[in-house]
Amino acid sequence: MTKLHLLCPLGLGLGGSCFIRFCRRGFQAVSSSSSTATATVTATAKQMSTECCTFGPYKVDPKEVFYSTPLSYAMVNLRPVVPGHVLVCPRREVKRFVDLTIDETTDLWLTAQRIGGGLECYHKASSLTFTIQDGPQAGQTVPHVHIHILPRKDGDFERNDEIYDAIDVKEKKLKEKLDLDKERKDRSLEEMSKEADEYRSLFFLKS
């Protein structure tokens, strides 16, 4: 992993000097002062804790959101298929991909690119799967556009296409949980919140 020391932070909003760690397609910005980094992450977490995001007709617990822009947000998954499986959604409730504005589409994919690169590095993966189930016949169960991002490793599935079947199953279970408020069987809110905290520390740069 290479570190590049920046005396001028290129308008990234960090202030002072910082390090950019380059790792494959992703990067991680780290302040030269650990206390400064901790303060930045804490401030970002507090800001997100006051934000209200929705996922279709459902409210998203702010503790599950680890990254946001004015048009998009990223959240951890209730039932991940692989470690690092997260969702990136537009803030506006939009059912179909074709109904996104140009700005929303651009921001959504730029957010997905950034999140994917960071999580691939974090989970020491070698590839990424990006997928959208656009409409009911495509397997979409929550009527809100969302991109599945999955860090991939060699041998994680015997046949590569099996991952799409696994996503379909998890998507249906997610809707059952949201609709019926069934008891969480896979992960607790505490577990998801802890994961979101870990990811938030990777993406503490304000967008």
UniProtKB/TrEMBL annotation:
Keyword Hydrolase set for record: yes
Annotated signal sequence range: 1-15
Keyword Zinc found: no
Binding positions for substrate per the UniProt entry: N77, Q133, G139, Q140, T141, V142, H148
Assigned EC number: 3.6.1.29
Residue numbers annotated as active site: H146 (tele-amp-histidine intermediate)
Domain of life: Eukaryota
Molecular-function annotations in GO: adenylylsulfatase activity; bis(5'-adenosyl)-triphosphatase activity; nucleotide binding
Motif position, Histidine triad motif: 144-148
Coiled coil: 175-202
Domain spans labelled HIT: 51-159
Keywords annotated in UniProt: Coiled coil, Hydrolase, Nucleotide-binding, Signal
Catalyzed chemical reaction(s): P(1),P(3)-bis(5'-adenosyl) triphosphate + H2O = AMP + ADP + 2 H(+)
Residues with site note (Important for induction of apoptosis): Y164
Annotated protein name in UniProt: Bis(5'-adenosyl)-triphosphatase
Species this chain originates from: Durio zibethinus
Organism phylogeny: Eukaryota, Viridiplantae, Streptophyta, Embryophyta, Tracheophyta
Encoding gene (name): LOC111285811
